[in-house]
Write a structure and sequence with these properties.
single chain; 67 residues; mainly alpha; 0% strand; 2 helices
């Protein structure tokens, strides 16, 4: 079973990658660093929250695990 700390660290690293990708895409699409950054921040907050919940739910599901 994965620890909460590990799940959180994985989520943070993944979301940092997503944040910079989304900021770049937002900037390229809008031409504004402020708007692109705002889009990236909103996406990161929602994505991080969903990812942590998703990981914790899957940690409780025994299906597909071999003991």
């Amino acid at each position: 079973m994965e620890t909460r700390k590990r799940s959180i660290i994985k989520a943070v690293i993944w979301n940092l990658i997503g944040f910079f990708s989304m900021a770049l895409i937002g900037w390229l699409v809008t031409g504004s660093t402020v708007l692109g950054g705002g889009i990236a921040v909103a996406n990161t907050i929602v994505g991080l929250s969903c990812y942590i919940i998703y990981e914790r739910i899957w940690c409780r599901i025994q299906w597909g695990r071999h003991v």
